[in-house]
Design brief:
The chain is an all-alpha fold and about 300 residues long. It contains 14 helices and no strands. The longest helix has about 40 residues.
């Protein structure tokens, strides 16, 4: 008797058969995979190290300023890097009341608040028109705003001073507000024009078919959709206008209407040899707090606004 040969598939478990490799899909050798994995780990460690160093460079000066604002003048010089023995919150009250930081703070809130609203309103309307409508000279207007971003403000100070003087706008809140708006419009229009181009046009077309006017479509449909971009550019404008020093120094010489940056410089120069350093650090911290608070509250919106147009 002859033994029958077993079928070739006998003894194999379904699903474990060797499947032919796809053409061109050969796996890299184990040596190459190990090298690529090690390079990725080195790059990851390096990037995290750079971020940690950058974070320390940013946060340590802020923490040092806060600690110095809670010390006495003697502690600032004897132990500049040490913790205060006692928290002297009276430095903040002295800077707010005696050094008139409170008045300068309120002046800055009025000027920056009004100029920020005007900048965002005019900038968003201009950017929407440039992004959505075709008309003769559109590119010329757009590149005019882009060119305004590269124009040094220091070159315009002298003619701007005489223009403001002839229009009786020197040493006035509304004059400084108009200058801040003109100073911030180029970047605002440039940023929001690119952002409005990424928004879907079908929503605006549906609103127009339902009988909505261009004004209603912009304010009730497109503007809410552009909220991430508006918050992002609003944060940048707020930082630039809050920290502005050159424009108010030239155009606002009235002591009763000085803004916060002018007040800090006045606090430094008026002390002369007395040098109330604790009050100066307290005033500096008071000037930083609104900026830090705004960024901490809206940091997610800033990040989403900056990356919204990156992937379509």
């Amino acid at each position: 008797m002859t033994a029958q040969a077993e079928p070739s598939g006998l003894g194999t478990v379904p699903g474990e058969e060797d499947t032919p490799a796809a053409p061109g899909a050969a796996a890299p050798p184990a040596k190459d995979r190990g090298r690529m994995g090690s390079e990725g780990q080195v790059l990851n460690v390096f990037s995290h190290g750079v971020l940690i160093i950058w974070g320390l460079l940013v946060t340590l000066p802020l923490l040092w300023a806060v600690m110095s604002s809670l010390k006495t003048d003697k502690e600032i010089f004897t132990s500049p890097w040490g913790l205060p023995e006692k928290l002297h919150f009276d430095n903040w009250s002295r800077a707010w009341n005696e050094s008139e930081i409170g008045d300068f703070f309120l002046n800055t809130v009025v000027v920056v608040g009004c100029s920020l609203v005007g900048t965002m309103l005019l900038g968003s309307m201009t950017a929407y028109v440039l992004a959505r409508f075709e008309f003769p000279g559109r590119r010329l207007v757009y590149f005019g705003f882009v060119g305004g971003m590269s124009f040094p403000i220091i070159l315009a100070l002298v003619p701007l001073f005489f223009v403001m003087k002839n229009m009786s706008l020197l040493n006035t809140y509304h004059g400084l507000i108009l200058v801040y708006i003109a100073y911030s419009l180029p970047f605002t229009v440039f940023f929001l024009t690119s952002f409005f181009k990424t928004l879907p046009t079908s929503v605006a077309e549906a609103a127009m078919l339902d009988g909505a006017s261009h004004t209603r479509t912009f304010f009730q449909v497109m503007l809410p959709m552009a909220k991430p971009g508006l918050i992002s550019v609003g944060i940048f404008n707020f930082l630039g206008q809050w920290n502005q020093y050159m424009l108010p120094t030239v155009l606002n010489t009235d002591e009763d209407k000085r803004v916060l940056t002018q007040g800090l410089v006045q606090l430094t120069t008026s002390q002369q040899y007395r040098s109330d350093w604790s009050a100066l650090f307290a005033g500096l911290v008071l000037a930083m707090l609104p900026v830090l608070a705004v960024y901490i509250i809206f940091q997610r919106q800033v990040q989403s606004g900056l990356t919204a147009g990156a992937v379509k």
